[in-house]
């Protein structure tokens, strides 16, 4: 049995705290954790509910019951009928296949969330992110003209430019072959080290999670193991 | 080449078809999106209601419109008494008749277009600060544009050719409700009208072909603009 840090950690600087239940088609997810600053990995086999958990945190699925708070701000409290929708949470989610908008250029994709943030809330500028992820030459292209690795770097850049309070990464490398994975991992590491954004990194690949994460939570059959 | 009466029929047809398409567009986009994206109680009923004009004899929706929107109908009387609006036997009524008959032809391609868009794209937009309405306007609608354009052209063409419902609801009044098909029908029934009937029939065929070509061109152009056909740079 792999060992992860205890979810009932007593460290006071946790940024995210949740205790959520979700049910669909006989699948029950019941997950509770306190997440600290830095990168938290969530690792587990396919179908264990990792992506569902991220969707619940991002506000893409409504939980059946439970609570979610970020830095002491309650985002979800089902019993109290409180539910902050996805577009007010300021959590960016990087999908497995990027989900770049095919009708927009790379530049317009990158600026999609940036333009929806007030100037005072922006933490990153376009040029910074272009340099960080080495995607400058791609800005005039359309997503259909990008390779898989380029697409994921643009998706990561788009999420960063939204200046999220929390970055959720849902198997961002799963669609790439091993060679591309090895190319992108250093970029993710660089994002971690240079932005200090709290991140939740979901993957079924243990090595990937351990390379990036400061601590790892394990998930199995809809439950986070402690 | 065309007589004043024939020109009049052509102009009226174009005006009726244009207004019918504009009237159908917002409802067609909304209903197409709802049918593609949402599961709700009574969905089958909405689908059936939308498709009904396609499978009914056109005179039936026309007659229903007359019963509802005619001067003696409940809605028609209310419109007249409250706003002074008369629909029966006017060109505005012809717009309504055409819109009802052409609506399914707009909804179908719009619905298919929305169904083909990965709904996670809109989810991605909401995780980047877009409200659902904003995500619809900036992601789903632009991506559905080829379907919306194709549906609009079909709707316009169908409105140009509307006959049965128009005849039943607004009659065949020269200059007011005598659109191209009604003019052809009228010319067919007067001695010596064959020449005019044939000219207008030829014109109808030409307009229909033009509309189909325009639909094809607009769809291709929209697809290219949206990046669907753009793979000039080889994948790495």
What would your notes on this structure say?
Chain A contains seven helices and eleven strands. The model of chain A is unreliable at 1-12 (pLDDT under 50). Chain A has a single domain (14-225), classed as Rossmann fold, CATH 3.40.50. In chain A, the strands form two sheets. In chain A, strands 7-8-9-3-10-11 form a six-stranded mixed sheet, with helices on both faces. A five-stranded antiparallel sheet of chain A has the order 2-1-4-5-6, with helices on one face. Chain A is globular. In chain A, a hairpin with a 2-residue loop joins strand 1 and strand 2 (27-36). Chain A has 226 residues and is α/β, with parallel strands linked by helices. In chain A, helix 3 (106-114) runs parallel beside helix 5 (148-161) and helix 5 (148-161) packs parallel to helix 6 (178-195). With 236 residues, chain B is mainly alpha-helical. Chain B has one domain (4-225): MetI-like (MetI-like fold, Orthogonal Bundle), CATH 1.10.3720. Chain B has ten helices and no strands. The longest helix of chain B is centred in the first third of the chain and has 34 residues, at 4-37. The model of chain B is unreliable at 230-236 (pLDDT under 50). At the A-B interface, helix 2, strand 7 and helix 5 of A face helix 6 and helix 7 of B.
- Provide the CATH superfamily of chain B: MetI-like
Strand portion of chain B, in percent? under 5%
Number of strands of chain B: 0
**Which structural class fits the helix and strand makeup of chain B?**
mainly alpha
| Radius of gyration of chain B, taken over Cα atoms and rounded to an integer in Å | 21 Å
Q: How confident is the prediction overall: mean pLDDT of chain B?
A: 88
Mean pLDDT of chain A: 85
- Count of domain modules of chain A: 1
Helix/strand-derived class of chain A? Answer: alpha/beta
Q: How much helix is in the residues of chain A?
A: 25-40%
**How far from one another are the termini of chain B?**
59 Å
Please tell me the total number of domains of chain B.
Answer: 1
Report the top-level CATH class of chain B: Mainly Alpha
């Amino acid at each position: 049995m792999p060992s992860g840090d205890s979810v009932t950690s007593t460290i006071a600087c946790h940024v995210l705290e949740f205790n959520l239940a979700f049910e669909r088609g006989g699948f029950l997810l019941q997950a509770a954790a306190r997440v600290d600053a830095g990168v938290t990995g969530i690792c587990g086999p396919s179908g264990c509910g990792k992506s569902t958990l991220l969707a619940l945190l991002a506000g893409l699925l409504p939980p059946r019951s439970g609570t979610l708070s970020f830095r002491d701000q309650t985002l979800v409290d089902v019993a109290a009928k409180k539910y902050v929708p996805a577009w007010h949470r300021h959590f960016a989610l990087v999908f497995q296949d990027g989900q770049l908008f095919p009708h927009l250029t790379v530049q317009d994709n990158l600026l999609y969330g940036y333009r929806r943030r007030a100037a005072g809330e922006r933490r990153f500028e376009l040029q910074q992110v272009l340099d960080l992820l080495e995607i400058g030459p791609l800005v005039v292209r359309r997503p259909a003209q990008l390779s898989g690795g380029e697409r994921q770097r643009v998706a990561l850049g788009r999420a960063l430019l939204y200046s999220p309070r929390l970055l959720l990464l849902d198997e961002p490398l799963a669609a790439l072959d091993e060679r591309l994975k090895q190319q992108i991992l250093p970029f993710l590491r660089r994002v971690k080290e240079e932005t200090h954004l709290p991140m939740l990194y979901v993957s079924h690949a243990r090595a990937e999670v351990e390379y990036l994460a400061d601590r790892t939570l394990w998930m199995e059959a809809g439950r986070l193991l402690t | 080449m065309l007589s004043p009466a024939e020109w009049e029929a052509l102009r009226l047809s174009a005006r009726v078809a244009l207004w019918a398409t504009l009237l159908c567009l917002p409802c067609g986009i909304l209903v197409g999106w709802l049918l593609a994206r949402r599961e709700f109680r009574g969905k089958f009923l909405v689908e059936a209601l939308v498709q009904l004009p396609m499978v009914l004899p056109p005179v039936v929706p026309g007659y229903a419109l007359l019963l509802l929107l005619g001067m003696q109908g409940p809605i028609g009387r209310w419109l007249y008494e409250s706003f002074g609006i008369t629909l029966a036997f006017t060109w505005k009524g012809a717009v309504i008749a055409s819109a009802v008959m052409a609506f399914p032809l707009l909804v179908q391609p719009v619905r298919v277009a929305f169904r083909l868009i990965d709904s996670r794209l809109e989810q991605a937009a909401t995780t980047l600060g877009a409200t659902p309405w904003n995500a619809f306007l900036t992601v789903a609608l632009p991506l559905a544009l080829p379907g919306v354009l194709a549906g609009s052209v079909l709707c316009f063409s169908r409105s140009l050719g509307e006959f049965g419902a128009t005849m039943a609801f607004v009659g065949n009044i020269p200059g007011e409700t005598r659109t191209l098909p009604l003019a052809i029908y009228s010319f067919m029934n007067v001695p010596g009208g064959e020449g005019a009937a044939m000219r207008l029939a030829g014109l109808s065929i030409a307009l229909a072909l033009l509309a189909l070509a325009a639909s094809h061109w607009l769809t291709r152009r929209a697809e290219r603009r949206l990046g669907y056909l753009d793979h000039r740079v080889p994948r790495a």
